[in-house]
Amino acid sequence: LVTLFWARTDAVGGSTQSEWKCHEKLTEYCLQLREREITAEAGLCAVIHCSFKTPQSFIPSSLVWFKCEPGQKCSASDIIFHSKNPNKIQPHFSGRVLLLEPDLTQRKCSIIINDLQLSDSGTYQFRVNSNNSGLSFSSSRATVSVKALQQKPTVQTPALTEGQHSALTCTAPGLCSGSEPTFTWTWRGAGDAPPNVTTATTDRLTPVNHRHSSTLWLTASAELHGAELSCTVSYKPSSTQDSVRINVTYVKDLEVSGDTVVKEGDSLNVTCSVDSFPPSRLMWFGPNKTRLNVSETTESSSQTDLGSASLLIHNVTQAQSGQYMCEGLHLNSSQTRDVHISVCPPATVSLLPALIVSLILNVVFIVVIVFLVL
Fold it and tell me: What is the pLDDT of residues 294-322, one digit of tens each?
């Protein structure tokens, strides 16, 4: 058993690389370990990059990693990874630590720690064993700091059109090979949750780098426009969420409101409107098919984009009666609605009711006089 304490360092490369630390006398024994603090988030993973050099006569048989308190000597009870004897590993690290390069002859000792917990914060030390001896690189330790989960998932939404089938994707943060996260999709502002199907996928980019995602399949509808869609990714015991506002391209039928029968001299006020996204362009045409100048407005809210155009004519005349048309333009499509406007002649005041009332009053008056005389 040999424990190496280092007295000098030889820097290799620029400041972005770790230094090779070699023994003062046994200069063939060196370790390259990133000693700057490695920060990571709970539920994700952390990689400790590590390489070592030994004489050719030293043939590695197993690699061991410890997690021990700063300033204290690591012992067998501190083992978190053992390439040859997994029974020696601390129970709460079992299955969570993987060697990035399993071929020990490559003299690579980098590890990945999956399913990080806040309690994983601390210092980590490396040891390499041969058949006849072992080396503990005691003076070089990596420091890992685990913080609360802050990264958010990535939600990707394609262009949505009413009636079309679409796929929305939520990708979990990190590229970790630990436990697969749980995905939950939730709607807000969409009324009843729309029928949908979800599928979870894991892309194994490398043996230790996995990309986890969930796909939401649905049929887009106007009721979903303006709704908020959230994707929650849960890692025991941490979770993270991101939300997107949904836009759906749609157009409803034209609607006409207002009195289409008016008296001559009054004001005509008929409104053509349509619910659509993006908002439609509305136009009015007169009986001779000429375009009219109208008041066009658009009212937008989180749920609707209601465009309207009002046909307003003051002091209307009978000559303005006829077939009018409202046309709505929406992207590359259009729709029309015919409206018949009727202008009636002004009302004449009839004297007959007044004469009848006057006659009745006179008869009653005569009857009363006769009754009093008798």
Answer: 765 544 433 344 688 889 989 999 999 99
How many other CB atoms are there within 10 angstroms of residue 188's CB atom? Answer: 10
User: Within a domain: residue 357?
Assistant: no
Same structural domain, 8 and 86: yes
Q: State whether 93 and 214 are in the same domain.
A: no
Per-residue pLDDT at 24 exceeds 50? yes
pLDDT band, very low/low/confident/very high, at 89 (cuts 50, 70, 90): very high
- Which residue segment(s) compose the domain that 296 sits in? 252-344
Kindly state the percentage of the chain with pLDDT values over 70.
84
In a domain, 139, yes or no: yes
pTM of the model: 0.76
Q: Do residues 215 and 302 both lie within one domain?
A: no
At 310, list the tokens.
């009002």
Q: Where is mean pLDDT largest: 46-60, 122-136, 154-168?
A: 154-168
User: Which residues contact residue 194 at a Cβ distance below 8 angstroms, ignoring those fewer than 6 apart?
Assistant: 187, 218, 219, 221, 223, 224
Beta bridge partners of 79: 66
Q: What is the pLDDT of residues 95-125, one digit of tens each?
A: 999 999 999 999 999 999 999 999 999 999 9
CA–CA distance, 158 with 155 (Å, rounded to integer)? 10
